[in-house]
Amino acid sequence: MNLVEGWYAVAIADDIEPGTSAGTRLFDRELVVWRDLAGVSHVWEDRCPHRGMRLSFGFVRGNHIACLYHGWAYDTAGQCRAIPAHPDLAVPETIKVATYHSAEASGLILVHSSLGAEAPPPPAPAPTGRALRSLYVDLAPDVVAERLLRDFTALDDGSYAGTLAGAPVLVFLQPFTATRTGLHLVLAGPGDSVAVSAAAEALRNAFEASSAPALEAAE
Amino acid sequence: MRTRVEMVFLGDFEPESFAEFMRHRAGRLSVSAVAGRIDATRVDVAVEGEPDLVDMFEMACSLGPIDCLVREAYRQGQGR
To answer: Mean pLDDT across the stretch B72-76?
Structure first.
């Protein structure tokens, strides 16, 4: 299984409330996911151009996010608009955060893994999808993808369709790092969300347990 | 308003590393930085731009990249 450039889920949309931010990773790149007070979500490189502080530690004010360190404030395009220590300065356009293409679908925040000027359209939302929870597995993303394929069907949008606790689910895989994988679970039809959540937890535990002997043998 | 200053940094330098650091910071801050002398102990650079941004460039270079150590920084004509 070779995970390629494309759209990946990085958070459950409802978990990022307006005015908040959170850090995550995709292919080991650090990202900030934040939502402005107008309700629009953004996914950027998690690094202030000034001193490299994580913007996920910053403050959202209106439609700006400000760095915790020195308060440099960035608009929704990633452009720095204010430097508190130099209030009269016309901030040059070169002071800008690298931004990713992002979208929301099926109750998830999705990001395109490339930093290019354009990205293909994001996956269409599941007709009846409801994001349920996120789990993180201490295994390589390609290993988790192969495990999922034993019981789930890979769809064109990159998700995996199957059933948990008798309910239809979609699983969106997030290549977090080389050794850690996020799984974002969407309930795609009627089902007991508590039972589905427990089944997903059991699935995660099974993935990690089945890899343990191999790891010990390797050591 | 733009200003032009001649900056001098003294210390222990990896010349290529410091030069790349200056290029990156100058681009980020929209100032022009034309290096004169760059060697293992001294860097001379002419910087032009908005005064606040020139100050930021000086501060950034005073910290420098991880493999360089700036021991002293001053501007030509303003004494050490």
So the answer is: 94
Interface test with B, best of A48, A70, A88, A95 (most B CBs within 10 A): A95
What's the total number of domains in chain B? 1
B80 in a structural domain = no
Contact of B53 with chain A, judged by CB distance below 8 Å, is answered with yes
pLDDT digits (tens, 9 = 90+) for A23-67: 999 999 999 999 999 999 999 999 999 989 999 999 999 999 999
Domain extent, residue B30, equals 3-75
- What is the chain A residue with the closest CA to B49? A92
In the prediction, which pLDDT does A208 show?
92
Global model pTM greater than 0.80: yes
CATH number for B59: 3.30.70.100
List of chain B residues whose C-beta atoms are within 8 Å of the C-beta of residue A93: 30
Q: Is the dihedral of CA A156, A159, A164, A167 positive or negative?
A: negative
Structure tokens at A90: 């016309």
Mark yes or no for CB contact A89/B52 under 8 Å: yes
A49 to chain B: which residues are within 8 Å by CB? 28
For range B15-30, the mean pLDDT: 96
Average pLDDT, chain A: 92
In a domain, B48, yes or no: yes
ipTM for this prediction: 0.76
Q: Do A89 and B30 touch (CB under 8 A)?
A: no
Amino acid at B23: R
Distance linking the first and last C-alpha atoms of chain B:
25
- Please check whether residue B9 lies inside any domain of the structure: yes
Judged by a CB distance cut-off of 8 A, whether residue B30 touches chain A is yes
Q: Does B59 touch chain A (CB under 8 A)?
A: no
E strands, chain A, where?
Answer: 7-12, 21-26, 29-35, 41-45, 59-61, 64-66, 73-74, 80-82, 99-100, 102-105, 108-112, 130-137, 153-154, 160-164, 167-175, 181-187
